[in-house]
Amino acid sequence: MTPEALVNQTDTLLSFPDVALRLNRLIDEPATRPSDLAEVIICDPGLSARLLRLVNSALYARPQPVATVSQAIGLIGYRALRELVIATCTVDMFKGLSRQQVDMERFWLHGIACAIAVRHLAGHCGPHDGERLFLAGLLHSLGKLIFFTQCADAYAEVLRLVEQDGLAVDKAEQRVFGFDYADLGAELLKHWDFPESIWSPVAHHLDPAKAAEHRIEAEILHAAARIAQIVQVAVLADSVVPTEDNCEALCKLAERLGMEPDALIDLPGAINLQILEVFEILVPGSTLVY
Questions:
Q1: Can you tell me where the transmembrane regions are (predicted)?
Q2: CB of 181 within 8 A of CB of 164?
């Protein structure tokens, strides 16, 4: 089995809704106007409401409230609009999974924490595209969902290797399948026609040194995923103060990124409220973080 074969096998399960596909096509057409995009979005009231809530959230920190979809498009631009719509549709795509397969609320809490962390880190590490990396952060673990839903029996062996032999999850996946969730997630993003600047960091975020292209973006995503782990545990424990071990790990990551250690150590607390706000918008009705 290969990542490509597994993604092709799940093609009908992992198909974007029509609204996302229509927006994608329109955004790629040079003659498209904001009003054209607004017409598509307002046909989906749920998507319209969540888009406006996201644009008015702390993620964008707008000085004045944004009241209409057209206004939102004008303020954030076409590419950011595409990424927000993809984020919303991707969350919806997997919301039917049972808790026995995977705890989706915890999964998306981690993804949203990674997305917001990577957006902040991109600003600290030079002129990198924080909006595009936001999407890479949100979707960096999608390969796990394919494993959980399509390979449940074989994945039980991965869990056994993790619990009984102490292997890291990705090492256990490599042993059982010959590839890991990062490889699988990157293949899915390729299948969805995402640019290399998104799928390549996802493919290499577990080991950025192996990235032939987009190495610094993979390093940023690697650090953001670690911060997301810290934030996820902290939110569930109602505390955002990193432990001593986490501070040591963050100092090492800061050195790799050329950042001041305090900037990375303080980041989990600085972005905590943004994470909770975006989580409540993208995963409405959750009781996980109250």
A1: none
A2: no
Q: Give dist(CA 33, CA 256) in Å, integer.
A: 42
| Per-residue model confidence as pLDDT tens digits over 212-225 | 888 889 999 999 99
* 165-to-98, 152, 182 alpha-carbon distances in Å: 27, 19, 21
**Contact at 8 Å (CB) between 37 and 81?**
yes
Please give the mean pLDDT across all residues of the chain: 84
Distance CA 21, CA 27 (A): 10
- What are the residue boundaries of the structural domains of the chain, listed by start? 3-282
Cα–Cα distance, 57 to 196 (Å, whole number): 29
Cβ atoms of 64 and 26 closer than 8 Å: no
CATH code that applies to domain 3-282: 1.10.3210.10
Tell me the whole-structure pTM to 2 decimals: 0.86
Residue 15 CB contacts under 8 Å (≥ 6 apart), including other chains: none
Q: Which two tokens stand for residue 244?
A: 């001593």
Tokens 């920190």 found at: 61
